[in-house]
Structure of Dihydrolipoyl dehydrogenase:
Amino acid sequence: MKKFDVVVIGAGPGGYVAAIKAAQLGLKTACVEKYQDKDGKTALGGTCLNVGCIPSKALLDSSWKYHEAETAFKAHGIEAKGLSIDVPAMIARKAQIVKNLTGGIAGLFKANGVTLVEGHGKLLSGKRVEVTCGDSSQVLEAENVIIAAGSAPVEIPPAPVDQEVIVDSSGALEFQSVPKKLGVIGAGVIGLELGSVWARLGAEVTVIEALDKFLPAADEAVAKEAQKVLSKQGLNIRLGARVMGTQVKKKQVTVSFTDANGEQSEVFDKLIVAVGRRPVTADLLAADSGVTLDERGFIFVDDHCRTSVPGVYAIGDVVRGAMLAHKASEEGVMVAERIAGHKAQMNYELIPSVIYTHPEIAWVGKSEQQLKAEGVAVNVGSFPFAASGRAMAAGESAGFVKIIADAETDRVLGVHVIGPSAAELVQQGAIAMEFGSSAEDLGLMVFSHPTLSEALHEAALAVNGGAIHIANRKKR
């Protein structure tokens, strides 16, 4: 029986980062991974790298370049005649990026001395991990175990996935042609991103969302602007629409749903089911492993990702909190450091969220409606990209930056952006908030000109009525 200081189950953004960090801290580390690519070879990186974050961004970038060439080049004096999209080439480019990055993780494992064990990992009692690969199996013994098994798309009975006509998020990354009519169930991050990809390339896209409210997790002002912009881009967003059933016939699917107007039905060439993700905990824990699950199937952990069994930790999508790659990675680092004896902490209040539509949508901290519900008095400052010289020069003037600060202390409590480079601007806000900055602190800093970051600067100034490049609200 092989013995390790740390055995990590799963090589996604949480698992592979935890394994590398543990090895860097001098711990003998193994990482177990079962995922295989189309060639039947073990591929590292988990959902994010193989069929999630990275490939979707590759397609988002490719489709946006095509959209710009089709709709925006003329304004720059550029003629693009005979424009066409080679979808198989676009998909092949995406696949090559994934291959390069998965190979990169394998190289990092080798450089840091992490032992890769191929197969399905299952936690047994006594911090032992059974690894099954084909007809063979072995048991690894560990001083510490980190469970990072990730998540999988949620399936719904009215729309069973066949990966041909009705697909999940993975299948939507493999289309070999642009569907004429595309349906998307779910107006969340995945649905909006994938719907945007194919809408830019010419698909007629309808997004069917059961909730009556668009992007309820986002700040209301941002959500309202996002719905307006995305609708203008061609996404037909149907809110309060509940799917009742689907019927596939002659390579098309009829979707039946109910909304405020009663029973409806539409026919699509392809249908993407993007209603969320669930933790992968099936066949992960032996009955006597001692690790407990909550009522939703997540592994129960404390603030330091410790399970009910001493020496066994769980991170990422299998535990509470946002299902975000960067959250999983930082949990992996925290756990590895705590195993090595360090008192690492993680600030769960400042985990940025991003939707990679165009314009991007991003936020960190709390929304205005959350703070008002908590009874916190706030001051709010906003700055539109329409007043930004850099955004205007780039033809990216949609959206705004919004900063929310405590009315009494002026401390920044939330940064919300819809617009160009929103993810990068929100990260600037996260850094400021991590160090307890006030809106005045941000307003006193020197921002280079002309930049998109100036919008953050002006929004901070606007919190206290001191914006320079827009008219300030009159105080009541």
Summary: The chain has a mean pLDDT of 97.
